[in-house]
Design brief:
Helix content: over 70%
Radius of gyration: 35 Å
Structural class: mainly alpha
Largest sheet: none
Shape: rod-shaped
Distance between the termini: 81 Å
Strand content: under 5%
Low-confidence stretches: none
Order of helices and strands: HHHH
Length: 104
């Protein structure tokens, strides 16, 4: 309770103008920090969320790149897989073969 009495005496004693001035300046500073332009707490929160989303997107892209690299390596090294891919994706055929395309 001593602390509360000391604070109360600062706002009612001889130095009350300084105490009130300090309190008002502190309130204005905190308010501007919350809703002002530029470097504010809500801006920090929004930036943190955006960074988190960007990192998740980067991880997803890296996963897709790794998957595609594996697929490319497999097609380059295995002739049967390359032939199957060419037939399925680009409707390639060996000479003399007939191709029937069935649309789903």
């Amino acid at each position: 309770m001593k602390i509360w009495e000391k604070i109360k005496s600062e706002f009612t004693g001889d130095r009350r103008r300084f105490a009130w001035f300090t309190l008002v300046v502190l309130i204005v500073f905190i308010f501007s920090w919350l809703v002002g332009d530029g470097n504010t707490i809500p801006g920090w929160i929004k930036a943190k969320k955006e960074i988190r989303n960007q990192k998740a997107q980067m991880e997803e892209y890296q996963r897709q790149i790794d998957e595609m690299d594996g697929s490319i390596d497999q097609r380059v090294t295995d002739i049967d897989t390359l032939e199957k891919f060419a037939r399925e994706q680009y409707n390639f055929a060996a000479p003399g073969e007939d191709i029937y395309i069935i649309e789903k």
